[in-house]
Amino acid sequence: MDNENILTGKIHQALNNGRKALIPFVPAGFPSKKRFWDVVLELDDAGADIIEIGVPFSDPVADGPVVEKASLRALEQGVNLEWIIEGLAENSPGMRAGIVLMGYFNPFLQFGLQDLAQKARKAGANGLIIPDLILEEVLPYIDMFKEHDLAYIPLVGLNTPPERLKNYAGLDPAFAYLVSVMGITGTRAGADKLLRDKLTQAREAFNCPVALGFGLSTKDQLEPIRDLVDAVVFGSALISHLDEGKSAGDFLRSWR
Amino acid sequence: MKKGYFGSFGGMFVPELLVPPLAELEEAVNRIMPEKSFQQDIARIYKDFVGRPTPVYYCGNFSSELGFDLFLKREDLAHTGAHKINNTVGQALLARHMGKTCLLAETGAGQHGVATATAAAMLGLECMIFMGALDVERQSINVQRMELLGARVEPVQSGTRTLKDAINEALRYWIAHQQDTHYCLGSAVGPHPFPLLVRELQSVIGREAREQLLERTGKLPDKVVACVGGGSNAIGIFHPFVNDLEVQLVGIEAGGSGRTGDNHSATLAKGSPGVLHGTHSFLLQTPEGQVLPSHSIAPGLDYPGVGPEHSYLKDSGRARYEVVHDHEALEAFRLLSGKEGIIPALESSHALAWVISSTRNIEPGSQVLVNLSGRGDKDLNIFRKAEQDTEN
Ligand SMILES: Cc1ncc(COP(=O)(O)O)c(C=O)c1O
User: Fold this and answer.
1) pLDDT at A190 over 80
2) In A103-247, where does DSSP find H-type helix?
3) Which CATH number does B53-81+203-391 carry?
4) B14-69 pLDDT per residue, tens
5) How far, in Å, from the CA of B229 to the mean position of ligand 1?
6) With an 8 Å Cβ cutoff, is B287 touching chain A?
7) How many A-B residue pairs are in contact by the CB < 8 A criterion?
8) Is the predicted pLDDT of residue B104 greater than 70, yes or no?
9) Which of A38, A156, B108, B154 is the most exposed place for a label (fewest CB within 10 A)?
């Protein structure tokens, strides 16, 4: 397709090469302001298809302790949207991976959404993930994002009903992102079935690729659902890996 | 108006994973709460368990000095010593109708935690309370009360280790345990439908007071004054007067020490619109949208956000919001105790302090109703320490 979204295209490219698309998430300014862009370039080098850059927020309610700590550490170092956009403008020209900014709504809102869309796109971002901006609340902005060619990527969960998946599909997103954990207790087999069922529903609802994320730490976890997933996102596992002083490239290569 | 909005304030800014439990709650609010049996049950609990109606008291000693008639709505006499119980017994009853077995709550100073644990014990529900680790240290008596009532108290180590972080943690816990757990949010804040639900339950304060004053004096008050933390006691007493346009509604926020650079909790007076904990409302934040730490000598007012309906009432001009500082609240605390034999909560003392210091703005002979949202026994340590600090 001529006018296929760039992020959709990245995922299709990976699939055409017979593998899942790899989407690493790194909080901006992690492990330090100085090293962050090197980590991004290293991930790009190692074959990341899309890189999610986390925009720090003081109160990240959808994240676990690992991401929250990284987020607060970034804030202490003075990481903000301006710094991210500036660095992105410098570093994105040579990169192959698609770029997504992932952050809570308030910092975007205070920056000004129109301004953000314009500047982020110009700097090389291709999409936004905003975990606390659900369907009803994103509607006022969706046309403006489209105008700026900035994709809005919806997050859906194991508890999102099929009708609502369809409503999200109506936004025509570049890809959909299924959050795989809820802390739902029960047998492993039960959890796998729940996940399989939801992935199947998501594939029915969305025309676009479906990515799976949250709580992925080993490749084995993918086995039972391999056939239903187009892309995988990793956050906490990568952060912990980097925190041990290990290389981003090694981490990604272990997933290829 | 858009669903869940008060003008441009409110909404539902939450992770998608919370949409199903919020939709389930909204459905229960619309379907179960209006039922006659629910209304009868809640009326009985208010009467027999909470001790409602709470009286309206005419402050004879104080009024003659002030030159106008001061009435107090005595929420300090409600069970557990504050208005918080009106909300928790209502939500607990609703949770039981919804088939939930566990009541989850955040707490700052512990007042809402105690009120939630109390409601859970009475209705046979499990109870899980998140409390900032710093607050656990500062308010150990309330931790003991909650535990005695059968609640599990979980200290929160993240962020500023206070109320706002306890709410973050409670939201996370709710995401994982939504099937059997109801989140009993403690103020008129948070995502839709919480601001409406909490208002509905706290409005019993204003309905009673309106009737009690009419019966006693034959007229409506000229001013209704309440302290505003998240805004539940204030919206509870304001709401039944909102259409009585001749009644002035005044919300009092906590200004902290008043020294420049010090943290405070005057969200409406000094904040700007933003999104925290699921709602678009006034917020204490940096220009970049990071939430600022708050402070007040009154632990219950120590929150950087405020309920969206107050933002709307401020914007529309129907209510006005003023700021009172720590030392003024302490003085009101002392005065009411000595003059009327009522020890007010430091939170409520903010509302009283504004009334006392506004004698020039309040016309002689007028009638002022203050929501005495809680009793002050819990605050004696803070009061004593503040007295010592000023002596030294
Ligand atoms: C006695 C009392 N008054 C007022 C408040 C403030 O809460 P709100 O603004 O929701 O009434 C609290 C909170 O703990 C309280 O304990």
Assistant:
1) no
2) 105-111, 113-123, 135-147, 162-169, 188-205, 236-243
3) 3.40.50.1100
4) 999 999 999 999 999 999 999 999 999 999 999 999 999 999 999 999 999 999 99
5) 6
6) yes
7) 103
8) yes
9) A38
Distance from CA of B300 to the nearest CA of A (A): 20
* pLDDT tens for each residue of A199-212: 999 999 999 999 99
For residue A72, being part of any structural domain is answered with yes
Nearest neighbour of B159 by CB, restricted to A72, A136, A156: A72
Ligand 1 near B265 CB (within 6 A): no
CA of B9 to the centre of ligand 1 (A): 21
Mutation pick for ligand 1 pocket among B83, B86, B142, B238 (CB with most ligand atoms within 8 Å): B83
What are the boundaries of each domain within chain B?
Answer: 15-45+84-198, 53-81+203-391
Sign of the Cα torsion B284, B288, B291, B296 reads: negative
Separation of alpha carbons B370 and B384, rounded Å: 25
Does the CB of B61 have a partner CB in chain A at under 8 Å? no
Give the pLDDT score at A254.
Answer: 86
C-beta of B229 in contact with ligand 1 (< 6 A): yes
User: Predicted ipTM?
Assistant: 0.95
How many other C-beta atoms are found inside a 10 Å radius of the C-beta of residue A230? 21
**CATH code of the domain containing A34:** 3.20.20.70
Name the residue range of residue A23's domain: 6-154+223-246
Q: Which CATH class is domain B15-45+84-198?
A: alpha beta
**What separation in Å is there between the alpha carbon of A220 and the centre of ligand 1?**
50
pLDDT at A224: 85
Q: How sure is the predictor about A183, in pLDDT bands with cuts at 50, 70 and 90?
A: low
The pLDDT tens digits of the residues spanning B214-227 come to: 999 999 999 999 99
How far CA B88 is from CA of A51, B177, B322, in Å, comes to 44, 19, 28
Has residue A30 been placed in a domain?
Answer: yes
Least CA distance to B273: which residue of chain A?
A110
| Residue at A165 is within a domain | no
What stretches of B233-385 adopt beta strand conformation (E)? 248-254, 272-276, 278-283, 319-324, 367-372
Which helix (H) or strand (E) segment holds residue A152: the answer is: strand A151-152
Tokens of A164: 């609502």
Cα–Cα distance measured from residue B257 to residue B328, given in angstroms and rounded to the nearest whole number:
10
When divided into structural domains, chain A yields a total of 1
Task: Give the Å distance between the CA of B218 and the centre of ligand 1.
Answer: 30
pLDDT over 60 at A4, yes or no: yes
Sorting pLDDT into bands at 50, 70 and 90, what band is B299? very high
| Ligand 1 atom at minimum distance from B81 CA | 1
Give the pTM: 0.96
Nearest CA in chain B to A184: B176
Q: Which residues of A touch B288 (CB under 8 A)?
A: 80-81, 107, 110-111
* Residue among A65, A80, A179 minimizing CB distance to B17: A179
Assign 3-class secondary structure to B94-143: HHHHCCCCEEEEEECCCHHHHHHHHHHHHHCCEEEEEEEHHHHHHCHHHH
**How many Cβ atoms are within 10 Å of B20's Cβ, its own excluded?**
17
Give the pLDDT of residue A64: 83
Atom of ligand 1 nearest to the CA of B108: 14
Residue B262 Cα to chain centre, angstroms: 23
How many C-beta neighbours within 10 Å does residue A221 have?
A: 15
Lookup result for tokens 């192959």: A96
DSSP state, residue B49 = I
